Amino acid sequence: MMMLPQRWITALTGVLAGLGLLAGLCAPGVALAGAQIEEPLADAVRTALSAAIGNGAAPTLVFADATQRQQCEAWSLALEAKLAKRKPEDLVRREFLQTVCYESKRAGLDPALVMGLIQVESGFRKYAISSVGARGYMQVMPFWARTIGNGDTSSLFTMQTNLRFGCVILRHYLDQEKGNLFMALGRYNGSRGRAEYPNMVTAARRAWQDADRLVAQVADAGGATPSPSTR
Fold first, then answer.
1. Would the pTM of this model clear 0.70, i.e. be above it?
2. Best CA proximity match to 49, nearest among 167, 142, 136, 139
3. Fewer Cβ neighbours under 10 Å: the N or C end of the chain?
4. HSE value, Cβ hemisphere, 13 Å, CA-based, for 65
5. Phi and psi for 228 in degrees, rounded to 5?
């Protein structure tokens, strides 16, 4: 069988991710996540991450102010049509998008980046499990629940908890890599230094960035929520 050059494989996976086709290549319930490496954490880092996660019930959305709430509502509205095929139930889709926006901003991340990561990691499947045991939307490895959570690995299938863990972990890796997104994404996937996974997430991210325009409109309009984009 003829082997394709690695640069062709990298380019092809990026194109597939950008078109939203990569997740469709996976068997139902199975994800393409890599194996995040369990690394020793300094006590101060572990304490900070645990505080960021919280050890109680599933997180709730507590917006800083009305403007932040309106921005997330506008962002969610802008993406509803794009996500409808993957999440046909209106309330489920709306709650998911607003939680992605909230947890992304809470962790200092771009919501479009988190959407791209979820698309590549799990194809937006809540109960996805990878071959190495990573769980849920953001394919969180069970050791994180034991290391910085309350030890309940089943909670990683709860939407709010999974997104909280995933965003906090990605923020942690970004801090470790001093803001280098390429290296942080590789660390998140367990493939640090390789281009395939960061390229896939970056390509998928672009497909979810239209909402930024709508959020800017909210700010310009003084908080009035504009009509959703159908592109």
1. yes
2. 167
3. N
4. 2
5. -70, 155
Which pLDDT belongs to residue 60?
74
With the C-alpha atoms ordered 163, 40, 171, 68, is the resulting torsion angle positive or negative? positive
Quick one: 172 exposed, middle or buried, by C-beta within 10 A (0-12, 13-18, 19+)? buried
3-state secondary structure of 115: helix
pLDDT value of residue 6: 46
Determine the Cα–Cα distance for residues 122 and 134; give it in Å rounded to an integer. Answer: 10
Residue 59, H or E segment:
none
Query: Which domains are present in the chain?
Result: 62-220 (1.10.530)
Instruction: Please choose, from the candidates 66, 125, 47, the residue with its C-alpha nearest in 3D space to the C-alpha of residue 92.
Output: 125
Token pair for 45: 């880092």
The kind and range of the H/E element at 214 are: helix 211-220
Divide the 231 residues of the chain into consecutive groups of 10 and give the mean pLDDT of each group. Answer: 43 41 40 68 89 76 80 90 94 95 94 97 95 94 93 94 96 96 95 93 91 60 46 34
Q: Which two tokens stand for residue 175?
A: 């801090």
Check: CB of residue 128 under 8 Å from CB of residue 135: yes
Residue 75 in contact with residue 104, Cβ under 8 Å? no
